[in-house]
Amino acid sequence: MHSLWALAILLLAKVTSAGSPSQKSAPSSLGKSRSLGPCQSCRLLISSFENGLERTATLPITSVPIGADIISPLSSSEPNASGSNQPSPVKEHISDDTRFEEIMKLLCSDVKGGKEQCAELVVAHSNLLQEWMQLETPWRPDLYTWFCIDKLHLCCPTNHFGPHCTPCAGYPNDICSGHGKCKGNGTRKGNGACLCDRGYVGSVCNSCAKLHYEAYRDKTKLICSPCHKSCAGGCSGAGTKHCDACNEGWETDDERGCLDINECLMLEKSCGKNDFCVNTEGSYSCFDCDRSCDGCYGDGPDMCDKCATGYTLIDKLCIDNSARFRDTKVDIARYLTYFGLCVSTCIIFQKNMTIASIIGIAVGMYIALSEYLLSEES
Ligand SMILES: *[C@@H]1O[C@H](CO)[C@@H](O)[C@H](O)[C@H]1NC(C)=O
Ligand SMILES: *[C@@H]1O[C@H](CO)[C@@H](O)[C@H](O)[C@H]1NC(C)=O
Question: Which residue owns the Cα nearest ligand 1 atom 11?
Answer without folding.
Answer: 83
